[in-house]
Amino acid sequence: MKITLCLVSLNLFIFITTHSLLSTASDVIYDSTGNKLLKGVPYYILPLLRGTGGGLTLSRASKDVCPLDVTQEPFDLSNGVPFIINPVLFDQNNVRAAYPISIEADVADPCRGSNILKVVTSEDVVKTVTAGGQFDTPESCFQLVENDMMPGLRSYQIQYCPSKCGANTGTGTDVICYNVGIISNSDGKRFVGLTDVMFPVVFESSFAKTVQSE
Asked: Which of 21, 58, 140, 142 could bond to 118 as cystine, CB 3.0-4.6 Å?
């Protein structure tokens, strides 16, 4: 799978370093209607900036290929598929900023495998996101941090944090997390992967009625 980055090099990952496994920030994450993001509830993951494509979805790179890739819908009005976000270390109803999470697509998987997202390295050494991950493992470890690209509009950056999950959790003092964004291939298809291009997102409940948080 030939994937090239637009404008920047993959060697320049933006990362954050924290001084402890879990950030001291206790801010909860909110959906697009101002309700707290809830564990186990499906949400569409949409770009903050309209005119930049639709929501995240799952798709095949080619026929019969598994696992499915995480991609972005090309059209603004396409929400993609819903995703469920679950805290990894703590059994909390609300998702909090800078806490490790798993992200799972809430759709039937034709590959009949796990729908939990994971980061993989392709033959071209480009780290992309696919389905087929496992809960509480380094390759499936993400977090959400607040993005202030547009003050007054609440949005978030998805980050990949392999050292916050799995057997090595808590063994180091510094944690490095990589931004997750959009990588386009030569055909213009938009894959989700590790990139230094910011990709602020919002979360929209997939239910017809707004989910009310506690």
From this structure: 140
Q: Is the dihedral of CA 114, 106, 74, 10 positive or negative?
A: negative
- Residue 179 belongs to what H/E stretch? strand 175-184
d(CA 123, CA 110): 23
Write down the CATH number for the domain with range 10-205. 2.80.10.50
Asked, as a colleague might, if the bond just before 67 is cis with ω within 30 of 0, I would say yes
Q: What is the DSSP letter of 23?
A: -
Residue matched to tokens 């026929």: 63
Global pTM reads 0.84
pLDDT 10s digits, 43-75: 999 999 888 899 999 998 778 889 999 999 999
- Phi, psi for 96 (deg, rounded to 5): -115, 155
For the chain, the average pLDDT equals 83
Structure tokens at 133: 């991950």
Q: How confident is the model at residue 149 (pLDDT cuts 50, 70, 90)?
A: confident
Cα 100 from Cα 148, distance rounded (Å): 20
Of the candidates 191, 92, 88, the one whose C-alpha atom is nearest the C-alpha of residue 143 is 88
- pLDDT value of position 81: 96
